[in-house]
Structures are given as structure tokens and as C-alpha cells.
Amino acid sequence: MNIPVIPLNPVLKMLGKGMLFFVLLIAVASCSGDVGPEGPEGPVGPQGIPGGQGGIGVSGVDGVDGSTGSRGIAGSRGVAGSAGVGGVDGLPGTAGTQGETGPAGVDGFTGPRGVAGSQGVAGPAGVDGVDGLQGTAEAQGVAGPAGVAGVDGLPGIVGAQGVAGPAGVAGVDGLPGTAGAQGVAGVDGLQGTAGAQGVAGPAGVAGVDGLPGTAGAQGVAGVDGLQGTAGAQGVDGSAGEDGVAGSAGEDGVDGSAGEDGVDGSAGEDGVAGSAGEDGVDGFAVYRAAPANTAITTLDSVGNVGDHTSITIGADGLPIISYYDGGNQNLKVAHCDDIACASKTDVTLDSDGDVGKYTSITIGADGLPIISYWHQTNNDLKVAHCADIACTSATITTLDSDGDVGWFTSITIGADGLPIISYYDWDNQNLKVAHCADIACESATDVTLDSVGNVGKYTSITIGVDGLPIISYYDLTNGDLKVAKCSNALCAPYFRRR
Questions:
Q1: What SS3 state is found at 10?
Q2: What DSSP element (H or E) covers 18?
Q3: By three-state DSSP, how is residue 21 classified?
């Protein structure tokens, strides 16, 4: 460890000069006559040329404190004399037996500090190890042996302080006397203030990790991280018990039965007709399923498969839209082969309870497009797929005016744009929405039939004349109805320019 070396010669030289000046001042004061009135302070004389630095002189014996005299007239400062030659430090004597502690004497001079040894070459820094847990504090190590104590000097006699006289005119600074021989070291004075910290030595070898400390108090909770990706769907729980059946509605009033007519008398048997010619041989109809029909369960994770719709994609493979009842989501399954023996399925919309009454077709851009009902918000929605397999889609709410979007059906019109038929539950009407673009990000909707409760179970297609035609159910009359559109938009008052 590097220990800074403090040179002592200048310190001792300054202390010696100060003590001699103090003694000389006392002597001058004692030789002065009656003190006159205090005169004006004289001008400060020019500073003398500093003398060359001499060696450390031998310290003189501490004199007896004299009484404080009056201040003399300050004269011009004299030329500083050269310092005396410093004496050689004597060898320390052997330590005697310690006597009884005497009264504290005047602080002796601090002995010179030993020369610090040169610091060894620092070794290369090791790789930082992983910080271990803070160990419990170990007991302090045994203190090293104390060095040999120097011989305590005899305390000097303290003189009685004289009565302070009135301040006289500052006397002329006397020449500094030569330093006296160093007196016997006095009793050690009180410990001085700590010096500046020395340069840190090289790090010692790391100690063995202590036992782990007790756990600190729990820190403040951090900001919530971003939501992680959804985990795989868990195994479906067992089906809950059936809910209580709703009460049956009241029966309508039965119409009165008409009176039975009078039975007529049986007529005579007619003459048997001649036999007709033999008809063409018929053929037998086999009602069982064909032997080569392949049936495949495509998705069995939870309660899935309601409200299905299927079409053939631009790649020649089937693609199916359907409702995931367990998670209340819209799903799509893209078949891996023509027979659809396997598939890749994806959840396309999971915003609330969505995906009922799906209908799928292929747009003019060769990409699937799906219409369906958003039950949570009671809206008609459309999903335009981003690729042939429909791994993602652009979702658009087309109609949110009341509870609309039931029983949807979608096709592509002669203008290359999607057109959708659906049921308006609030108004019990049949509605049609004609898309303004291929992705159906906006549409013009119109009520097509509003006579009674009409428009359930709709199905739409394009006729050979290029105009839409829609089949649907008239609940009021219990009838099958058809609406043949008069233009591509299926809107009234439409005229091409």
C-alpha cells in the first residue's frame, strides 16, 4: 500500500522559528519602559529577502512562559537569518517500565515518518465472479501486535500567565534566532485529526462467501409486462347440465270445426278398363350411403362446427367457415387435400361472441370473404382473408343499425363486388348490403322486404342475367319467398349512366 511521505524539515523549521520569535517578543516586552499611549499603526515594512533553507536545527529546551508584556511599536521586518544545521536524530532508547501517568505535558514534535516501501506490480484483474448473496458480518480479526513505544519525554513546567497589559505599539520584528537543541520529547499529545486517506492498495484475495443474508423487503411491483401470446387451448370441460326449459307459449285459439257432410251412398263398381301397354323398365334406387364415401372429423376441440359454410378456393381446395361455440369465436379451416382428410384451422375473429350465421365465397381477387353475425354488438360483420388459406383477415363492421346480421348469405355480383342478404331482427325485415370494394370495407344497405316478419334463412346467388336472386322465409305467413333484384345493387331507383 502506498503511504504518502510528509517531509518534516519544513514543519520543524517553521515551529522553531515561531517559538524563537515568541521568546524574543517576551524579552523585548520585559525591557521596555512605561507604556505610552497607543500610537498610530506604522506602515508595513517591505518583506525581507527569504534566506536559503537550511537543515533542521536542534530544538531548544522549552522556555518558561513569561507574562504577556505590552505590544511594542512595530518596526520594519529584518532580514531572515539562515536556519541552523539540523542535528542528527538519536537512536531510540530501549523502552523502560512504564511509570505512573503524569500530567499531560506540552505536545512534543511528531517524529519523522518512515519511508514507504515501493508498491508491487499489480497482477492482472481476474474475471468478475457472480455476486454472491450478502453474508452475515464476521467477527473482527485479531489486532496485530503494537509497535515498540518511544520513551515518553518529561513534561515541561507550565509558567503562570501574567496579567495582560494594554496593547502597545507593535514592535519591530526581531531577527529569528538559531534553533536550539531538540528537547526531550514530551508526553504524547492528544490524537490529531485523521489525515487524508492514502491511495488504495491492490485488492486482497476475495474471502469465502458468507452465509446468505435474510431476504430484504419486497420491492415495489414493476410495471405490468405486455400480454403474452395465448397458450394452447386446454381440454374442454365436461358439458354442463341442460338449462331449465322455458315455458311453452300459449296455444292459439283453435278454429271451429265445420259440420260433417252427409255420407253419400256408394256407387256401383265401374266396368274394368283394358290393360295399358307395358311401361319402360324402371331402375332401383339404393338409399344407403355410397360405399366409398369418406367421412372425416376435422375439428373436435371443444364445441365447434355450428353455422358452417363451405366453398372451393382458388387453389382448388375446400375452405370452411364455422362457429366455435366453446370460445364464441369465428374459425376457418383450410383443407390440405381435395377430400379434406386434414386441415389447417385458425381463429379469425375473437372480439366478443362472434361467428354465427357464417357464409363464405371466393372474391374476384381469388381470396375468401366471409359474412357473419357479431352477437355481442348485434352487428353484421365481414372478414376479407389476406391469403388463400385465410390465416388472417381484415375485419369490418358493415351494418350496426340495431340488431342486424342474422342468417347471412354472401356471393359475388356481376360487377365483381360482394353482395350479402341478411335478416334485420329489430324490424323483422329482409336486408341486402352491396359492397363498395372487393374487400367490402364499406357497403350500401337497403331493406328489400318489410311486409310482415320476413327475411329469415336467406340464401343469395347471381342469375344468368347477372342480377341477384334471394330465397328466404316469410314467418308471418309460413311461406317460402323469393326476391329477384332489378339491378346489380339490388336497390330501388337504380339507373346506370
A1: helix
A2: helix 9-31
A3: helix
Q: Which long-range contacts (CB under 8 A, 24 or more apart) does 287-296 make?
A: 294/339, 294/341, 296/339, 296/340, 296/341, 296/342
| Cβ-proximal residues to 52 (8 Å cutoff; 6+ apart), any chain | 82
Q: What is the pLDDT of residues 276-310, one digit of tens each?
A: 566 555 444 445 556 688 999 999 999 999 999 99
Rounded to whole angstroms, the Cα distance separating 138 from 136 reads: 6
Look-up of cell digits 491492490: 202
Assign domain 304-484 to its CATH architecture: 6 Propeller (2.120)
Domain layout of the chain by residue ranges: 1-86+160-188, 304-484
Closest listed residue to residue 363, CA positions, set 417, 419, 310: 417
Cα distances from 316 to residues 308, 319, 344, in angstroms, run 19, 9, 15
Question: Residues 6 or more apart from 18 whose CB is under 8 A from it?
Answer: none
Residue 41 and residue 70: Cα distance in Å, rounded?
Answer: 15
Count CA atoms within 13 Å of residue 183 on its CB side: 19
431 CB burial (10 A radius; 0-12, 13-18, 19+): buried
Contacts for 274 with CB less than 8 Å, ≥ 6 apart? none
pLDDT per residue as tens digits for the range 263-283: 556 656 656 656 656 655 544
Q: How many CA atoms lie within 13 A of 201 on its CB side?
A: 11
Q: What is the pTM of this model?
A: 0.45
Task: Using DSSP, state whether 328 is helix, strand or coil.
Answer: coil
Please tell me the distance from the alpha carbon of residue 208 to that of residue 229, in angstroms, as a whole number: 44
For residues 151 and 175, give the distance between their C-alpha atoms in angstroms, rounded to a whole number: 34
